[in-house]
Structures are given as structure tokens and as C-alpha cells.
Amino acid sequence: MGKIFYILGKSSTGKDTIYKNLMENKKLGLRPIIPYTTRPMRAKETPGVEYHFTDEEELMRMEAAGKVIELRTYETVHGIWKYFTAAGNHVDLDHYHYVMIGVLDSFLAVRKYYGENIVIPVYIEVEDGERLQRALDRERSQEQPRYAELCRRFLTDSKDFAEERILQANIERRFLNNNLQECIQEITAYIQKQMVM
Predict the structure, then answer these.
(1) CA dist 98 to 20, 63, 108, 152, Å?
(2) Taking the CB of residue 69, how many other CB atoms lie within 10 A of it?
(3) What are 133-187's pLDDT values in tens digits?
(4) Does the CA dihedral 35-40-42-44 come out positive or negative?
(5) What is the DSSP string of 42-91?
(6) 174 and 123 in contact (C-beta within 8 Å)?
(7) Whose CA is closest to 178, among 118, 122, 141, 130?
């Protein structure tokens, strides 16, 4: 039976970079489960890679068809943005292992849908000061930086990833991303071990 390795953590902990590295690792052979969002695409993002970029109309069609596993709505400084995970025939756990990326609420919903033995958390941590600096550097590189949204997201993470919520979710294993390559190696070894359990 295949596993779904769910990468999660606060914003700017390196989740996207780690995800891309795991996807490029041919020995792992992981397949992606790509979430959906109604937010605007950022510079250097590609439709169908980081997210399926969609609109409210398509979201309503998918909800009506019973395909939405979980849905999160954020009131940002730029309007309402929605993120969601959809079920479909693109997941074949009889033959493959998968990787996806998201936040704690999404992880909990996906784990409830597929099962605790199938959905394995890969929780990434970075010290808050370093994380804020990384977020600021990334936002500065955008054509139209959204600093107010960066601040909102940073503060929201403190609530969304409060220590008691992490403990309630039974997330025991954590990966500290102070050195990206070491962190990736540690996660890769962990995933390989989980694949044969």
C-alpha cells in the first residue's frame, strides 16, 4: 500500500524547495498531489506544479460533485483566497507513493480522508527570526511585493501551528531546516524507511 507524505510547516520554512527536491529524486519515485487555489499566481509559479490555479465557479462545480476533501478560506489584505484539496482518480495507492504540501488543517482533513496509516506528516521547522527574513527576501523579489500579506501570514502561522495543535495532531517527528541539504537528506532517509513499513 502506498503512502502520502505530507510536507507541512509555517510559511517560509523551505517547504516548496524541499518538495521540489523530493519530486526530483528518482529513487523515491514520488508522485505529486497538487492542491488548488483561487489566489493569483506568483512570479515563477507554474499552473499544475505548485497549485492548480482556479476560480470560484470551478470550485463550486467541484464541491457540487463531492470532490473537495478540504477547503480553507483566508481573508487576506488582497481579498478572499481559497485553498483546497480535491479527490480524484489521480491517486493510485495500490501502486504508488505520493507527496503533497500544505498547512496543518489541510493535513488533518487529508489524513482523515485517506487514513492515519497512509498520510505521514513531514513537519518542517525554522526559527521565527530566520523565517521572517526568508519571507521578506522572497517578497522583495516579487514584481509587486505584498508586505501586508506577508505580515498577516506570519502572524496567522503562530495560531495555526501553535504547539498544542501540533501535539493534538500526533506530529512527533520534526525536521529543522537550518541547512537545506542536510534537511533534505534527513527527510529522504525518513521517507525511505516509512515506505517499507
Answers:
(1) 13, 23, 16, 31
(2) 18
(3) 999 998 999 888 989 989 988 999 989 999 999 999 999 999 999 999 999 999 9
(4) positive
(5) PTT--BTTTBEE--HHHHHHHHHTT-EEEEEEEEETTEEEEEEEE--TT-
(6) yes
(7) 130
**What pTM was computed for the model?**
0.85
- Cell 470551478 locates to 58
pLDDT tens digits, 43-91: 889 998 888 999 999 999 999 999 999 999 988 878 899 999 998 768 8
Q: In the chain, at which residue ranges do the beta strands (DSSP E only) sit?
A: 4-8, 31-32, 36-37, 52-53, 68-76, 79-86, 98-102, 119-125, 174-176
Q: Alpha-carbon dihedral of residues 112, 109, 16, 83, nearest 10 degrees?
A: 150
CA angle 173, 91, 66 (to 5 degrees): 105
Whole-Å CA distances, 104 to 4, 41, 78 = 15, 22, 23
User: Is 29 within 8 Å of 96 (Cβ atoms)?
Assistant: yes
